[in-house]
């Protein structure tokens, strides 16, 4: 085996433990190939995927079927104003947003969306 001591020597008659003369680059390449090609592991085969690794189907709650999420990043004062509206009107957030959006649709002559 090549050791750091053998690699640092300057003698032209450098011979490794396999008996290969190491004065030429082709001999060095042959020595490397002999030591590395014998240790290639066989590829693994996958027969079946385990049930734990399969992707679970998206389960949508009944209250969310036919609906989409609409969100926005706004300054904190908008949240404060919505909370004050909720306290004043007693409506939940979805009802307030649906009502306000329908008012904007009506203002711009767009069809309003019915609330289920």
Key descriptive features of the protein:
2 domains; 116 residues; 4 helices; mainly alpha; elongated
Outline the structure in words:
It is elongated, with a radius of gyration of 37 Å. It has two domains: 4-39, no CATH class; 70-116, no CATH class. It has helices spanning 4-7, 25-36, 76-89, 93-107. With 116 residues, the protein is mostly helical.
Question: Number of helix segments?
Answer: 4
Query: What is the helix fraction of residues, given as a range?
Result: 25-40%
Write down the domain tally: 2
The H-and-E topology, N to C, reads as HHHH
Whole-number average pLDDT? 77
Proportion of residues in β-strands: under 5%
**Major β-sheet, in short?**
none
Straight-line N-to-C gap: 79 Å
Structural class designation: mainly alpha
Shape: elongated
Layout of helices and strands:
Elements: H1 4-7, H2 25-36, H3 76-89, H4 93-107
Quick structural gist:
The protein is mainly alpha-helical and 116 residues long.
């Amino acid at each position: 085996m090549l050791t750091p001591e053998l690699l640092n020597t300057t003698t032209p008659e450098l011979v490794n433990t396999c008996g290969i003369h190491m004065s030429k680059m082709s001999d060095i390449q042959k020595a490397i190939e002999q030591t590395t090609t014998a240790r290639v592991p066989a590829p693994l085969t996958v027969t079946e995927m385990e049930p734990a690794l399969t992707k679970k189907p998206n389960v949508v709650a009944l209250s969310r079927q036919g609906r989409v999420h609409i969100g926005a990043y706004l300054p904190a004062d908008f949240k404060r104003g919505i909370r004050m509206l909720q306290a004043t009107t007693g409506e939940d957030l979805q009802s307030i947003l649906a009502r306000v959006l329908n008012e904007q649709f009506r203002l711009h002559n767009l069809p309003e969306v019915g609330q289920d």
